[in-house]
Design a protein that fits this description.
Pfam families: TetR_N. This is TetR family transcriptional regulator. One of its GO terms (molecular function) is DNA binding. The chain is 63% helix and 0% strand. With 205 residues, it is mainly alpha-helical. 28% of the residues are buried. α1 crosses α4. The longest helix is centred in the C-terminal third of the chain and has 23 residues. The chain folds into 2 domains: 44 residues, Arc Repressor Mutant, subunit A (Orthogonal Bundle), CATH 1.10.10; 131 residues, Tetracycline Repressor, domain 2 (Orthogonal Bundle), CATH 1.10.357. It contains 9 helices and no strands.
């Protein structure tokens, strides 16, 4: 008679979230199998870990997808045409600040921190989903600016590339502010100040 394996002692979906938090905090290379096993708990053994997730790399890929499907959605308001272009951009910046400072997970943005974390050349390919996400965000910012021009909110003779880069740089920098302990209220005020760049580019009517 075929023997069945011992029933899994942990919630797999919760284990992916715990792994996501570790990778978010430490990056891929700096997160060890021992740390992952300790976070998952329930006395999980190495064989049980590999049976459940396949490998550290496979678990990282699941954790990345989990992040992109949840926390990273704060930037989707860039594409919300029910908001004015300015509202869409400011909403994205404010929601990103609130997400990155929220309790219950590491500070900062996993997508932004992915470009700053030390990752060996052999593992750099694992960060491709983050690169794609950052590129989509850049396109979303440009989309807002172009919508602003088309709606007459911004001057037509606008340097879209430079203005987009300014907002993108600010968005990426929120992670550093959150990690360094800069107060959330200060960062939110910085968003308001940042939007003055938009206002300075308003079309003269």
């Amino acid at each position: 008679m075929m023997r069945t394996g011992r029933p899994r002692q942990f919630d797999r979906s919760q284990a992916v979230i715990k792994a996501m938090h570790l990778f978010w905090q430490n990056g891929y290379d700096s997160t060890s199998l021992a740390q992952l096993k300790a976070a998952i708990g329930k006395g999980i053994t190495a064989p049980s870990f590999y049976a459940a997730f396949g490998s550290k790399e496979a678990l990282f890929n699941e954790a990345v997808n989990c992040y992109l499907d949840t926390h990273a959605q704060v930037t989707e308001s860039l594409w919300n045409c029910e908001l004015s272009a300015r509202e869409a951009l400011e909403t994205t910046l404010m929601n990103s600040v609130r997400m990155q400072y929220a309790e219950g997970h590491p500070k900062g943005c996993m997508v932004a921190l992915g470009v700053m974390s030390a990752c060996s050349d052999e593992n750099r390919r694992l960060l491709k989903p983050f690169e794609d996400s950052r590129q989509r965000t850049r396109e979303g910012i440009k989309n807002c600016i172009n919508r602003g021009i088309e709606a007459g909110e911004l001057e037509e003779a606008q340097d879209v590339v430079a203005l987009s880069a300014a907002f993108d740089s600010f968005l990426m920098g929120i992670s550093t502010l959150a990690r360094d302990g800069v107060a959330q209220q200060e960062t939110e005020r910085a968003v308001v100040r940042m939007m003055s760049l938009w206002d300075a580019a308003r079309a003269v009517k």
